[in-house]
Write a structure and sequence with these properties.
By secondary structure, this protein is mainly α. α1 packs antiparallel against α3 and α1 runs antiparallel to α5. The two termini are about 30 Å apart. The model has no long low-confidence stretch (mean pLDDT about 85). It holds the Pfam family Tmemb_18A. Its main location: cytoplasm. Belongs to the CNEP1R1 family.
């Protein structure tokens, strides 16, 4: 394989990698937005749960029953993490990092752009 063919292969690889990462960006953005919304809801519900004076007087499960917003948002957040949202949010970064590792073995590099 001569250097011209190698350069063309490298450019094709770069185009395909860029295309794939660019294709992941909209889905990643939606997952990030969902994670932010559910996290803010959970934090807001937790704050309301903690400042409620009844929380100290009743049992734990009764307290959760009295604060359904916190309970539902907390269960949703836990469910999202079990569903793998943490992997979906950082998928493009993981792919770029793995490609960077492989390319380093061949004295090549790539950036996040």
């Amino acid at each position: 394989m001569n250097s011209l063919e190698q350069a063309e292969d490298l450019k094709a690889f770069e185009r395909r990698l860029t295309e794939y990462i660019h294709c992941l960006q909209p889905a990643t953005g939606r997952w990030r937005m969902l994670l932010i919304v559910v996290s803010v809801c959970t934090a807001t519900g937790a704050w309301n749960w903690l400042i409620d004076p009844e929380t100290q007087k009743v049992s734990f499960f009764t307290s959760l029953w009295n604060h359904p917003f916190f309970t539902i948002s907390c269960i949703t957040l836990i469910g999202l993490f079990f569903a793998g949202i943490h992997k979906r949010v950082v998928a493009p970064s993981i792919i770029a990092a793995r490609c960077r590792t492989i390319l380093a073995e061949y004295n090549m590099s790539c950036d996040d752009q």
